[in-house]
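Why does residue order matter? Because the sequence determines the fold. Keep that principle in mind as you read this record.
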Amino acid sequence: MTLPNQLLDGYRAFRGGRLLSEQERYRELAESGQSPKIMVIGCCDSRVSPETIFNARPGELFVVRNVANLVPPYTPDGAQRAVSAALEFAVQALKVKHIVVLGHERCGGIKAYTEPNAPLSPGDFIGKWMALIAPAADAVGPATSFRTRDDYLSHLEQVSIVKTLDNLMTFPCVRILVERGRLTLHGAYFGVATGQLSVLDQKTAQFRAVNEG
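Structure:
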């Protein structure tokens, strides 16, 4: 076997547990294909799995994950753009009804943007990607205006979600469906330490905690 033992052990546990209880659903999905109503754009951070946070069953969420849950503005320049391609597929082919941008506290990508570190490689792929944070950082202002650095980072993480929602609206296929009431955009923020989920109130631009009830 060429996979790490942790993965093989996890797969065997899956085969003997969840797969048995959901075998019929997997068969249905294999025959009929997927038809999720919700797309989640999340961070690739290993602590923040959308399927775990939302206790989702197979086939319920169409998930795209990248560093810092970002979406570049609409740029039809012929370049290969993975997030744009996934978004186009979700909206045009799967016809999802909701898109959720899910950010989280202690985001390494956003922290990296605020620190003058040397590139990790000559390509500086992370540095170039995280440049998408610039509009959010401009809106938040200098870190010195916040009581603590953690306060600044938390605020930047949340404003970045708002700016990503703005970027989604630059895609014609998204904007048209939103304006027609056939697609709804949402922002959410997950507290890694507490497990608390907060949802963006787009009227007030504030994140409000979800009550357990």
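Strands lie at 38-43, 61-66, 98-104, 184-190, 197-201, 206-209.
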